[in-house]
Amino acid sequence: AQSVTQLGSHVSVSEGALVLLRCNYSSSVPPYLFWYVQYPNQGLQLLLKYTSAATLVKGINGFEAEFKKSETSFHLTKPSAHMSDAAEYFCAVSGRETSGSRLTFGEGTQLTVNP
Amino acid sequence: EPEVTQTPSHQVTQMGQEVILRCVPISNHLYFYWYRQILGQKVEFLVSFYNNEISEKSEIFDDQFSVERPDGSNFTLKIRSTKLEDSAMYFCASRLAGTGVGGYTFGSGTRLTVV
After folding, report:
1. CA B22 – CA B8 distance, rounded (Å)
2. Which among A46, A90, A100 has the least Cβ separation from residue B56?
3. CA-CA distance, A54 to B1, in Å (whole number)?
4. Phi and psi at residue A62, in whole multiples of 5°?
5. What is chain A's alpha carbon radius of gyration, rounded to the nearest angstrom?
């Protein structure tokens, strides 16, 4: 079974500041890990994914995340926040690909970017 | 860019009524999914569908729920007798075979309100 915990349901940063959204996972098998973003009234857009290749994963819009097995973490970062980054962010985990390959999501973190 | 299309975007129904949520996955995708998000809660897996049959379902997906791919393009979720607690945002997703779980494309969702 897999689960993820996102620390902080709301994060607020100033424009230009570092964004750090925290995610810890639990998995009985080597995990695949994902970050999704959801803008208001829109669907879930994949930001980046870890599938057992490089531990530092770069995604869209300047985001990146580092898989740390020893810490069971997959935190999302961006060096400089933009106003357009304001959205809800979801961490998700899956086991090895099977015909089903369900995603298990965290509770989400609402990111606010202040001018 | 190809999209997963969901209709309607909003649906209000009376408790006990049947509802059908519709999705048009990306045309060459082979795996199809339904997820839901109750307001203020995490995104939850409902069911996955492959090769015209359910490949995996969660404990949420009880006998009140069913899925169908009636015509090779649509993918539907039916709730036979809606309850107040079925009120949620329902997301459809699809992916190609062989792209791994990161190949999901999500629709924008249908907001179902049961009154």
Report:
1. 7
2. A100
3. 27
4. 80, 5
5. 14
Distance, CA of A95 to CA of A75 (rounded, Å): 18
**Mean pLDDT per 10-residue interval, chain B, length 115 residues:** 90 97 93 92 92 92 94 93 96 81 83 97
| A108 contact residues in B (CB cutoff 8 A) | 42-43
Pairing state between β B110-114 and B10-13: parallel
Which amino acid makes up residue B20?
I
Å between B99 CA and nearest CA of chain A: 9
Determine the distance in angstroms separating the CA of A58 from the nearest CA of chain B, rounded to an integer.
14
Local structure of B112: helix, strand or coil? strand
- A32 and chain B: CB distance < 8 Å anywhere? yes
